[in-house]
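Issue: copy button drops trailing tokens. Both records pasted manually instead:
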Amino acid sequence: MSEIFDETNMRRALEEYIPDRETLLAGIHAISKETHITGVFGKCVCTEDGLVPNENGGIVALSKKKGSAYDIYLGITQSSLIVTGCEANSYFYQFDGRPDVKEADIQEVTSDIRFADIGTCFPLADIQDCKMKKGWMGSVKCFLTMKNGSYFKLILPKMGGLGGGMPHHTEYRETIIARLGGIDA
């Protein structure tokens, strides 16, 4: 468990999802109490592990959910929000092969996408709403909703674990809170 509270491990996990020409500005250990990720993908086929591009493939609407608490790393770059599990996790997946969506909502699949990678990187501009309020023992509760309907119920702990493995936690947490809009009164 202590390897979760290690800034080097956190950076390695987040950097896997950082878009080209961006850098990690801040990253912390947090807790996701509930995750619900949605996406609509076109010109693809489903495999056991993900989506594969196929010019004759159809449209797949995906819902990826987890309703129990688990450890995550939360990071921001110049224009992105990155959310990734600290450890391997299981999610509940639902698929709809005939979604009722507009053309603009469909993301064309141009390369293989693993299910585990879906919902890890979001443009900051796609955040529809972010509500934060003070939680127990100095934590901050964060309810984050994206424009596509995805949402996260997060807890941003006051401290980055015991042992000093995350020496920049407080500074990075404040940066993330400020970037996402601050704490509601």
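Record 2 (pasted manually too):
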Amino acid sequence: MERTVKKIAQVYYYIYTATILTTIVGYMTTMDNYDPIPMNNPLGIALKSIIILYTIISIPLALAGFHRQTKKWRAIEDERQKFKAYQKGATIRLLLVGIGLIASIIVFFLLRTDISLIYCAGISAIVLLFFCKPTEGKMINDLKIEE
């Protein structure tokens, strides 16, 4: 079980590392004389809309889908197989939310004038921090493991 949590935690910290690197690179590349995509430009509107829709759809889908799957994983008798399924599901949940986080930051630096993308990134980061952070306690609770 400890090994499973460590593998999920790796993905979790990779996402946050990618977020920090994306923010630094985005800031450094747009710091001097950068002409952002105009917000009223059809490309800007499309990018913003895609990111907002992705965030609105992916977060509930990831959380609810993971919750439904944990009910199925509880029934698995073999602990090794149960932990493997849990690890795969938790990784998919992290990736679904993490993609929204990183994409919002990228598009924010492309547009540079729209604060709603920072809100999308903030929502995704909070969801990752509070609902997706891997711990042994959450795994025990999710899978109803008796020790």
